[in-house]
Design goal:
The chain has about 350 residues and is an all-beta fold. About 5% of the residues lie in helices and about 40% in strands. The strands form seven sheets. Strands 1-2-25-24-23-22 form a six-stranded antiparallel beta sheet, with no helix packed on it. It has a four-stranded antiparallel beta sheet with strand order 3-28-27-26, with no helix packed on it. The protein has a four-stranded antiparallel beta sheet with strand order 4-5-6-7, with no helix packed on it. The radius of gyration is 19 Å and the shape is globular.
């Protein structure tokens, strides 16, 4: 393994790019932190997906921990969470301004019981254009209706409360696949489910446990043909990305290792959220920033953020990758197209 890594390192092409915001102001009016970011090339196949000279542009800073980015196509805006601040923010493409979209986004009880991660995490839009959120603090999935009400979709499995739903993905039949690690819990001694599972929720409200083999399941994604489910594990002892065949009944078969990020963990970050492009490549956050991994598990390169990086999503016309990294939100142009943009849905 050391020999392979040495050979890869010798082939690395790194272009260090200073972000635009070295003297910019963050969303709160404070001077933004300068962070040098770069694109690391490990395989020539990367050239078809992203330009190694592409600018990594910083859009917002001064947040505590950004997560759950999702592109709102109707309003041409990016929604993203700040979990410790218990809010969903909205970056407007026309103005470049960030405003609070919802606060509290998650836990709405006594502050003394809110924990370190009370807000929402993963966000998606359903086929009707309604926002669906993983609510860390209230340990549920909810849908945001037009009148602003939060409708609980699911908060229990076999009568027991979830730990803290983390990330989610929806298939073309409106089934939701989601992960349930413990990060949003104030006190893990009150856990009602002994494992950290991956689940599937049908439009009719039926929830199925798909697997409980993970210690810390986190980011989740589906292949373009929806026959493969990807799950990232944020565990320092086993930082991996796993793939599972999806059966016709929506259950999953035996998983296999897609990519082991352990050799990369000298860089900041753990396997976390992900986005999939139309060719099935994973743009998966992890050690260093965003790992670009083929469906066969080959690492082509990394978008080096030099900060722990939580999640990413495609936006605009599908060829811009939006990245939530530590207290920042950034974007970079790609040659790839994000999954779902080929049909240009309305939301």
């Amino acid at each position: 393994m050391k020999k392979i890594l040495t050979l890869l390192a010798a082939a690395v092409i790194v272009l260090t790019i200073g972000t635009r915001c070295s003297l910019a102001q963050d969303h709160g009016g404070n001077q933004a932190e300068t962070v040098k970011r770069s694109i690391e090339k490990l395989d020539d196949a990367l050239d078809a997906l992203i330009d190694t000279g592409a600018e990594i542009e910083q859009l917002s800073s001064g947040h505590k921990w950004t997560e759950g980015p999702v592109w709102d196509r109707q309003h041409k805006a990016l929604l993203f969470c700040d979990i410790p601040n218990n809010e969903i923010n909205r970056w407007d493409a026309a103005t470049g301004q960030v405003k609070v979209f919802m606060k509290p986004s998650g836990y709405d009880g006594p502050k003394t019981e809110s924990g370190k991660e009370p807000g929402t995490n993963g966000l998606i839009f359903d086929s009707a254009g309604r926002l669906i959120a993983c609510d860390h603090g209230n340990r549920r999935l909810y849908r945001l209706d037009e009148d602003g009400s939060k409708v609980t979709l699911i908060d229990r499995y076999e009568g027991k409360r979830f730990n803290s739903p983390n990330d989610l993905v929806m298939d073309k039949s409106n089934n939701i696949f989601f992960t349930d690690p413990p990060y949003g819990m104030v006190d893990q001694s009150v856990r009602e489910i002994e494992w950290h599972g991956v689940y599937r929720l049908t439009p009719e409200g039926t929830v199925t446990l798909l697997t409980k083999e993970f210690t810390r399941p986190n980011g989740i994604g589906l292949s373009p043909d929806e026959k493969t489910l990807y799950v990232a594990q944020s565990d320092k002892a086993k930082p991996i990305y796993q793939s599972f065949p999806v059966n016709e009944d929506g259950t999953i078969g035996e998983g296999k290792l897609l990519f082991d990020a352990a050799p990369l963990t000298d860089d900041p970050g753990m396997p976390d959220g992900m986005a999939i492009d139309t060719n099935g490549n994973l743009w998966a956050t992890g050690p260093g920033g965003v790992l670009i991994i083929t469906p066969e598990g080959k690492l082509l390169g990394r978008i080096m953020m030099n900060k722990p990086t939580a999640n990413c999503t495609f936006g605009d016309d599908g060829s811009t990758l939006y990245i939530t990294s530590s207290g920042f939100v950034c974007r970079v142009k790609t040659k790839a197209t994000g999954l779902g943009f080929e049909k240009s849905p309305t939301h």
